[in-house]
Amino acid sequence: EAQVTQNPRYLITVTGKKLTVTCSQNMNHEYMSWYRQDPGLGLRQIYYSMNVEVTDKGDVPEGYKVSRKEKRNFPLILESPSPNQTSLYFCASSLTPGGAGQPQHFGDGTRLSIL
Amino acid sequence: DAKTTQPPSMDCAEGRAANLPCNHSTISGNEYVYWYRQIHSQGPQYIIHGLKNNETNEMASLIITEDRKSSTLILPHATLRDTAVYYCIVGGNAGGTSYGKLTFGQGTILTVHP
Hints:
The complex is a heterodimer. Chain A is mostly beta strands. Chain A has strands at residues 4-7, 10-13, 19-25, 31-38, 42-51, 54-57, 65-66, 76-78, 87-94, 105-106, 110-114. In chain A, strands 2, 4, 5, 6, 9, 10 and 11 form a 7-stranded mixed sheet that branches. In chain A, strands 1-3-8-7 form a 4-stranded antiparallel sheet, with no helix packed on it. Chain B is 0% helix and 44% strand. Chain B has strands spanning 9-13, 18-23, 32-38, 45-50, 55-56, 61-64, 70-75, 84-91, 108-113.
């Protein structure tokens, strides 16, 4: 089954404790992206990757890192999490870097709570 | 990317057609119109997209006006499971190199009632 898989689905942690949210897709998609969703602010893009070893900042990259060493994986790293990073996070992928005319497939989300 | 305007909420009776409007008056000539929906806090689900022509798939139909400044998503026979937030997004660049970013607005909360 074609899917985007995120782990963990839920995490409660404390300020400053490094964490990684994994994202994996099995559709051989070139483009992958991370979004966060907050009440009243909608979904905002954090980082995106157009292919292996090619990443770039989205609208809200501060406090996050990403890597794309393999085509299928695009982890989101919070080196020193803070309470303002408490949010619902989604990973997405699409077939081509261009994206035009291509649907994006989203994971089921990761709910992070930073205390 | 062009901005979109959608009504904040709509109601629809089960079994009836749901027609969700979207205004995108600043859309550029090569930008696509996409529709996604989000059920509760699940990941957004792709529904349909179009450039200039009307489109239909197993989920919905998309009607784009001739001037492309507005569109309507049609769910022909709405069910209770279609209750969700529906997002109209414009972007991409047909024939270009857009990197596929989706700019989500607030969407329309569609409530389907029995």
